[in-house]
């Protein structure tokens, strides 16, 4: 049997040895999800957090999908885009500069995105806004979630980036992470002492986000309930109210809120 493809998600097949014709959900394979490193300071802590998240998401995949869904690090500092310098607006897709064309190819190569970034002055890093603004159609319709961090979890930066995702018509998943990192968690150089200790309390939320990503791809192994339109509307309303459902949403009480200061 030829490998499953995205164009043939379902197929009527005869299963040898059985006496019935069964409708079998075929697997849509080879999905790439970028775990985007969204800060660029020379002493940034973002790469360690993003690496932990990438590994946890990859490990959370059902074994049947572990070879075909790949979470990959995409470091904006390494992409090295200049500040938006295209003469035409990116929504037109007519890029003049090779660096924008290369960024377009990179983003087109991914099916979904998990952005990892700190809160900067109640917003989010300029490098991330620039990376988003340099393109348009490459983002549209793709599933997206994110993990912010800060002494209170980075919720204010989260609210801002959600508006941008909506403006780009991305498909935001129901859940995201707001990771509390306080002065107790870092050394004198503001490097995280134990990423594992800081992030482990968010494991359940992260697995829920991974499940929602699979659901967005139409793959099995998602949260286990099909999102009908009314249910989706309820979930979106609950998310806006920041109410937890099955650990899938940002909780009103933060896993590490007790440790937060400042
Ligand atoms: C420009 C700047 C602004 C910051 N603003 C906030 C803030 O609004 N809230 C917060 O909790 N932490 C803030 N911080 C502290 C960051 O959470 C902390 O420095 C973190 O390590 C930044 O992530 P990075 O190391 O990956 O750049 C800010 C840090 C910088 C450099």
Overall description:
The chain is an alpha/beta fold and 262 residues long. Helices cover 31% and strands 17% of the residues. The longest helix has 15 residues, at 203-217. Flavin mononucleotide binds at residues 39, 41, 44-46, 118-122, 150-152, 190.
List keywords for this structure.
single chain, binds flavin mononucleotide, about 260 residues, Rossmann fold, six-stranded parallel β-sheet, about 30% helix, two-stranded antiparallel ribbon
Short overview:
The chain has helices at residues 46-59, 76-79, 98-108, 126-133, 155-167, 195-199, 203-217, 229-240; strands at 10-14, 21-25, 31-37, 69-75, 112-118, 143-150, 171-172, 177-180. By secondary structure, the protein is of the alpha/beta class. Bound molecules: flavin mononucleotide.
Number of domains: 1
Radius of gyration: 20 Å
Taking the sheet with the most strands, its summary is: 6 strands, parallel
Helical fraction equals: 25-40%
**Count of alpha/pi helices:** 8
Q: Which molecules other than protein and nucleic acid are bound? A: flavin mononucleotide
What portion of residues belong to β-strands?
15-25%
User: Which structural class fits the helix and strand makeup?
Assistant: alpha/beta
> CATH first level: which class?
Alpha Beta
Helix/strand order, N-terminal first: EEEHEHHEHEHEEHHH
CATH architect. name: 3-Layer(aba) Sandwich
Terminal residue distance: 59 Å
- CATH third-level topology: Rossmann fold
Task: Look at the structure and give the mean pLDDT.
Answer: 84
Number of strands: 8
């Amino acid at each position: 049997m030829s490998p499953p493809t995205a164009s043939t998600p379902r197929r009527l097949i005869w299963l040898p040895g059985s006496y019935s014709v069964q409708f079998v959900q075929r697997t849509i394979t080879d999905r790439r999800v970028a775990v985007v490193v969204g800060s660029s300071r020379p002493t940034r802590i973002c790469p360690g957090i993003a690496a932990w998240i990438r590994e946890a998401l990859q490990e959370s995949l059902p074994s049947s999908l572990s070879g075909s869904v790949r979470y990959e690090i995409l470091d904006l500092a390494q992409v090295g885009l200049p500040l938006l310098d295209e003469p035409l607006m990116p929504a037109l897709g007519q890029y003049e500069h090779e660096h924008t064309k290369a960024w377009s190819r990179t983003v087109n190569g991914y099916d979904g995105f998990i952005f990892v970034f700190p809160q900067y002055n109640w917003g989010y890093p300029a490098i991330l806004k620039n990376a988003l603004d340099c393109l348009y159609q490459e983002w549209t319709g793709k599933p997206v979630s994110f993990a912010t961090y800060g002494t209170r979890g980075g919720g204010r930066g989260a609210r801002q980036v959600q508006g941008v995702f909506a403006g780009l018509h991305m498909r935001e998943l129901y859940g995201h992470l707001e990771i509390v990192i306080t002065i107790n968690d870092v050394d004198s150089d503001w490097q995280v002492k134990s990423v594992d200790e800081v992030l482990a309390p968010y494991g359940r939320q992260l697995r829920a986000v991974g499940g929602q990503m699979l659901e967005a791809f139409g793959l099995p192994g998602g949260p286990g309930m099909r999102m009908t339109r009314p249910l989706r509307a309820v979930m979106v309303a609950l998310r806006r109210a920041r109410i937890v459902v099955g650990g899938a949403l940002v909780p009103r009480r933060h896993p590490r809120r007790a440790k937060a200061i400042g």
